[in-house]
Structures are given as structure tokens and as C-alpha cells.
Amino acid sequence: MDDVRIVVSGLRKQYRGVTAVDDLSFTVEPGRVTGFLGPNGAGKTTTLRMLLGLVAPNAGTATIGGRRYTDLADPTRVVGAVLEASSAHKGRTGRNHLRACCITARLPRTRAEEVLDLVGLLPAADRTFKGYSLGMRQRLGIATAMLGDPRVLILDEPANGLDPEGIRWMRELLQGLAAQGRTVLVSSHLLSEMQALADDVVIVAAGKLMRQGPVASLLTSVGGDASVYARTPEPDKLGAALRQLGATVTTEGPNRLRVTGMAAESVGDAALAAGVALHHLTTEQPDLEDVFLDLTQAKAAIR
Ligand SMILES: Nc1ncnc2c1ncn2[C@@H]1O[C@H](COP(=O)(O)OP(=O)(O)OP(=O)(O)O)[C@@H](O)[C@H]1O
């Protein structure tokens, strides 16, 4: 596959009184799923719309494989996008909707069958759109985006309205498409889902880039210390012993302590030395939600 990297550079969009996107720069690599995260009003949708040539930026560029969307010779074969829960003519079946799109995009009708199969919609292909569940509509949106077998896929909140099984299906589909070398950019509010789905994340708040990088390194670099949770019948005694050793200890419910600044092994050793029984000891790593809130809280309050 050619270079299908997405490059956003110095992008800016101003609406009357609001800077929706403010000097935003980031890159999205092929062969990986990239999560595009930010609180409400962060500028995610505006950025995706500029990337797809639907909104003109006031400054900066957004390119796909080195070209602006509007300069692509055959965009449906390069980029597939699902911006909102997909819409189709209400009385039309899923199959007919896709066939109509094939005609518009000058693709063979057989492609409709292939994408119906890809998204698991063959059993509902002859039902009309108005009878589709939100999950089926999302699947039809992805099927439509995949018609031109694009090397880049851009999805705005694709997990919206999906049940847990649908979310898992979506995750496996998108990871499979990335494993084929495609570039997959997905915006979402669902942080736990992003942690399971994305290789990289781009975090924005108030139109600005907060952080970009692989999920794994972000969690270790920004998330702070892991927490150790200890359950004991003598929390006061254990707490005092741990504080004496320099740990930070807070009480988290009856007989439960949260300890930072000390590994679980040392907490166990300290309990033994103090003659305190331990009933439970676990370590929790910071998750993407901790990182996200840490990075965006101050900015989010502005909007
Ligand atoms: N057409 C428009 N006219 C005026 N203001 C707009 C327009 N589109 C977006 N905005 C404003 O720009 C800011 C960014 O909006 P945008 O929809 O891009 O954010 P978002 O990150 O996608 O938010 P959400 O997660 O809530 O969808 C918001 O303050 C929004 O009100």
C-alpha cells in the first residue's frame, strides 16, 4: 500500500466567537488504530470534517497520503468515512442502499454483497432501513464506507448505540482492517473501549492538542503511580506502619486502604512486620480515563 498517513498541520477553524480548532497538528499512521479523544466541544468533529473536505479551515492543512481530500482523484477508493449514525432512504433495503451507492461510485454491484458480508449484515440485507436497529445502522454505515475498499477509514463515534457484543465486533473489525495496513482513525468518548481498541491516541481539548502517542506509553508517562489496595481488619495500624515507611495512604471504605508510592510486595512485608493480617492486596495501574481527565479537565471547564 502507498503512504496513507494522515497529517494534520497547524489546522485552525473559527466560528463566530468560538475557536473550534486551534493550531492543531498530529499524524495518524497506517497499520494502526488511532483513537481521537476529547471532551464535548473539543473540536473532534470539526477536525474530521476538515479532513474530509466538508469544512474549509481558516489556516493549516489536513492531508491523506500527502493530498487534501478535495485533491484526491478517486476519494471513495482512498477514504471511507462514517460521520454520524449512517442515514439511508427509510424505505430502502440495506442491499438496495448499497447497490445505489455502487452505481454512484461506479463500482460493480457485487461489491454490495461483499461489504454486507464484511459487516455481518447479510441476514438483514432485505429489510428496510427504517426497521434497522442503531447497531444495524452503524454496520450499514461501515459497509457504505468500505465499498471502495479504501485504505483509510475515518469514523466519528462508531460505538454509539452498540451493545457489548456489537462493540466487540466493531473492535475486531477495525483492528483487522488496521492489521491489513489500513489507516484507521476513530473518535470516541468511550475511554475504556478506546483502551481496548486503539494502538495510538490523539487527545484534544478546547481545539488544541493535549497529547499524542501510543496508548501504552501514554499510560506510563502521564498516568502517575500505580495504586495498591489493601484490605485488612486493622486499617489504622497498617496505615500508620505504611506512612512511617513513606507511603501515601488514604482510606477507601471500611477496612480498605489505597496506598501510593509503594509496591504491593513492600505493603505485604510491612503488614507482616507490623503483625497485621491482610485479607486482600491488589495493584491497579492508571487507565486511559485517568490520563484523559488529567489532561483535559482544566481545558474542558472553559467550554
Ligand atoms: N457550524 C458551527 N457553527 C458554530 N459553531 C460550531 C459549529 N460547529 C462546531 N461549532 C463549535 O465548535 C466547537 C467544537 O465542536 P465540535 O463538534 O467539533 O466538537 P466535538 O469534539 O466533536 O464535540 P462532541 O464530542 O460534543 O461532538 C464547539 O464549541 C461547537 O459549538
TrEMBL record:
Concerning PROSITE patterns, the annotation shows:
ABC_TRANSPORTER_1, ABC_TRANSPORTER_2
Keywords of the record = ATP-binding, Nucleotide-binding, Transport
What is the top-level taxon of the source organism? Bacteria
- Residue ranges of every copy of the ABC transporter domain listed in the record: 6-231
Q: Tell me a Gene Ontology molecular-function term this record carries.
A: ATP binding
Q: Look up the coiled coil feature and give its residue ranges.
A: none
**What InterPro entries does its record include?**
AAA+_ATPase, ABC_transporter-like_ATP-bd, ABC_transporter-like_CS, P-loop_NTPase
Any one Pfam family here would be ABC_tran
PANTHER family, from UniProt? Answer: ABC TRANSPORTER, ATP-BINDING PROTEIN
The family classification in the record reads:
Belongs to the ABC transporter superfamily.
The protein, known as? ABC transporter ATP-binding protein
Species this chain originates from:
Dactylosporangium darangshiense
